[in-house]
Write a structure and sequence with these properties.
This is DUF4218 domain-containing protein. Residues 47-68, 83-129 are annotated as: Disordered. Residues 48-61, 92-114 have a biased composition (Low complexity). The protein is 35% helix and 19% strand. The protein is α+β, with helices and mostly antiparallel strands. Helix 1 crosses helix 4 (166-176) and helix 15 (479-502) runs antiparallel to helix 17 (517-524). The protein contains 19 helices and 22 strands. It starts with a helix and ends in a 9-residue tail after the last strand.
């Protein structure tokens, strides 16, 4: 009797679940039907309305009205942007959601010595305001055009939905079929899924080779080739465990166009049945053959031949040892030497016996083109080891449980001031084993110098500052050019002091490799330019594309093919785009004009919310922004300057040389600052009676 009731309840739950899914699909179908019935159809094209602006007032009148000591003529180009939540103390007497477009490019004509030519001239620009940008009207010639648009949008939505089940998509298509007769009944037709793919059997697994040329053919490369004149890619290889209950691993080969912001593309995808991978030649066979062909014949685009080359292989230590055919990173002779010594086998114990890498046939710099990756080496390696030593290792450096709790409390306080630039906010130090690489990076470069200052022994803290200063310098595109030799010196001191403080056991492969990191930056630029962060994000999306353990290689391959079509190239350059949004009104402002709560400069967001409202100017002033004013096609910040600034630390280098300072005594007077004088966005962290101002490295310089 008990079993009957048990199975009856299980059956009822399954029935309710099916009914819930069916009702949900019906609601989606109804919403889509209603939304498209509301679309306005019109056979005539809509005429754009244009309006002319009033004559710009002279610069002298702005200076007199706003009491500007220095002015800068700037014209900026902006895009429409959505509104964000905000929290500030201004009156909302005349608030609207207007966004503004200003067409032009930034020019600096301030009187402080920066390009002071034409300082007396003003440029007039045309701009449009759209106060109802959330209400979109679509115009179609007929129902057929409307249906084609819907199918296109549905396809884009399906590809971007992440964990969308293909069965549910088929069910949705069946529900929509009565409304749109030409809509396909299968997701395979909608997403152009191929009927089959070629899977090669290799030792210990299976391999799908998509190819570099296939990926390049799916991209709109015209603008890229006009600038770079050749195809340059970075390559990444890494292991990706798929399931907790299985030893199956993906080993993808990923590529990425250098000089773009595009996501990496899949070159090949290999499924190994074990975590231990030994057969290198089969793994790289098709890749090496294609590289041979591209290096000899180039890449053809629009009947024109372009040179092809590989810039770097960006891998973690295990992947580097596998790709190069050398001993594991934990071995005694694991340290990587120069290209010449590698080819000549000067250190035979460094190489695996009878396992020469096929990449040597390509003329690849087996050391110079395999840079040390900062993500795995520094953040997940050295700094994570340092934090674990403070918490777990016995010694005078070990932190008491109460001290760890106090540091965690300070981290959580910093969470309230953390800018939106950080996707992962500060959290409890007891969750260290769950930290991601971005959290270790944030803690090392930014809030760690504040929250650890009063909790670590003075010598331990100074030892930590050696690592902080070195990595802060190497991560900055501007500082690395000036202070790279200092960073190299700091890292060498850090290594030698590590032996004295923590013992020889602390100096493992990652710690030793720090002595080579500055040389990598001499060759390749700042750390972020050859970081594995962007490739790790792609690995995550590959794993997310799997819905079950059935044929995972085929699943991932199909999902990748479906999303690889007509890819636009996003160039990795700042085009000085400025977006103004969230208009409001504050009475008796020091400068008349249209007022806004939010401004986005090259995707760097400043707004009046306390967390994202601090900037450092070119003259090293730190400003708390209280308003944003657009006047005569130029944009100004209204803010309070901090009157006192001093070094936060002086060892191993004065923090002010890195842009890090401790500020206090905010000026009560509201002043006007042109946006072209902004140097960087800052994170203001409370410390005692002051604030520690730390420029965000990815925002400096904010303009080209």
């Amino acid at each position: 009797m008990f079993k009957i009731k048990y199975f009856k309840r299980r059956l009822e739950r399954k029935v309710n679940k099916v009914e819930h899914k069916t009702a949900r699909l019906e609601r989606i179908s109804l919403i889509l039907h209603e939304s498209f019935n509301d679309v306005v159809f019109n056979n005539e094209c809509r005429q754009d309305c244009s309006s002319s602006n009033d004559e710009s007032q002279s610069e002298d009148s702005i200076i007199q009205e706003g009491r500007i000591q220095e002015d800068c003529t700037a014209t900026v180009s902006t895009n429409l942007d959505g509104n964000d939540d905000y929290n500030d103390n201004f009156d909302d007497n005349n608030q609207s959601n207007g966004n503004i477009d200003i067409n032009g490019s930034v020019g600096d004509s301030s009187s402080n010595g920066y390009d002071s030519d034409d300082s007396g001239s003003t440029e007039s620009t045309n701009f449009d305001t759209d106060r109802d940008h959330n209400q979109i009207e679509l115009y179609f010639e007929n129902d057929k055009e409307k249906e084609a648009y819907f199918i296109k949008v549905l396809r884009i939505w399906a590809l971007q939905s992440g964990l969308l089940s293909m069965r549910k998509l088929d069910s949705l298509l069946a529900q929509l079929k009565p409304l749109f007769h030409n809509i396909p009944l299968s997701y395979k037709t909608l997403l152009d899924t191929p009927s089959s793919i070629q899977i090669m059997q290799i030792t210990g697994g299976q391999l799908w080779y998509k190819g570099i040329t296939t990926n390049l053919n799916s991209m709109n490369l015209k603008s890229y080739l006009e600038i770079h004149k050749k195809i340059v890619i970075d390559v990444n290889a890494d292991g990706l465990p798929l399931f907790k209950s299985s030893r199956e691993h993906f080993w993808p080969l990923l590529g990425r166009l250098v000089g773009t912001k595009n996501q990496p593309f899949v070159i090949s995808l290999t499924l190994f049945q074990s975590a231990i991978v030994s057969e290198l030649h089969e793994f790289l066979y098709y890749f090496v053959n294609e590289i041979h062909y591209l290096k000899e014949n180039g890449y053809m685009y629009n009947d024109q031949r372009f040179e092809f080359c590989i810039q770097n292989f960006i891998c973690d230590a295990p992947a580097r040892s596998f790709m190069k055919g050398i001993v594991e990173h934990g071995a005694y002779f694991a340290c990587e030497k120069t290209n010449e010594s590698f080819i000549n086998r000067d250190q035979s114990n460094h190489h695996r016996h009878n396992n020469q890498s096929p990449l040597e046939e390509l003329g690849i710099g087996m050391v110079s083109q395999f840079p040390l990756d900062g993500m795995h080496l520094v953040y997940l390696g050295v700094f994570r080891r340092l934090l674990l030593a403070w918490q777990k290792w016995n010694g005078p450096w070990k932190l008491h449980v109460r001290t760890v709790a106090q540091i965690s409390d300070d981290l959580l306080v910093g969470k309230t001031t953390c800018p939106q630039d950080f996707n992962r906010k500060p959290r409890n130090l007891n969750e260290l084993k769950y930290y991601k690489a971005t959290e270790f990076r944030r803690l090392l470069l930014y809030d760690g110098i504040v929250v650890l200052k009063n909790h670590l022994n003075e010598n331990i803290y100074k030892h930590f500052l050696l690592l902080h200063c070195a990595i802060y310098i190497l991560s900055s595109p501007s500082l690395v050019q000036t202070f790279c030799h200092y960073a190299e010196e700091f890292l060498n001191i850090f290594i030698s002091h590590s032996v004295v403080i923590y013992g020889q056991k602390f100096v493992v492969y990652n710690v030793h490799s720090l002595c080579h990191l500055a040389q990598e930056c001499y060759l390749h630029g700042d750390l972020e330019s050859f970081s594995a962060f962007v490739f790790e994000n792609k690995l995550k999306s590959l794993k997310a594309s799997l819905k079950s353990g059935y044929k995972p290689l085929q699943q991932a391959a199909f999902r990748d093919i479906e999303s690889s079509e007509n890819i636009d190239i996003i160039m990795d350059k700042k085009d000085n785009q400025v977006t103004l949004s969230m208009s409001h009104f504050y009475d008796n402002e020091v400068l008349n004009g249209q007022q806004y709560r939010r401004i986005s400069i090259n995707n760097v967001v400043l707004q009046l919310n306390g967390k994202d409202s601090y900037v450092k100017m070119n003259n090293e002033e730190v400003i708390a922004i209280v308003n944003i004013v657009q006047r005569d096609d130029r944009v100004f910040l209204i803010g309070h300057a901090f009157l006192r600034s001093e070094d936060f630390y002086q060892y191993p280098i004065s923090s002010s040389l890195l842009g890090i300072c401790m500020v206090s005594h905010k000026d009560e007077q509201r002043k006007i600052f042109p946006i072209s004088d902004i140097k960087a966005k800052c994170w203001m962290i409370p410390y005692e009676e002051c604030y520690v101002c730390i420029p965000l490295l990815h925002t400096s310089p904010i303009f080209n």
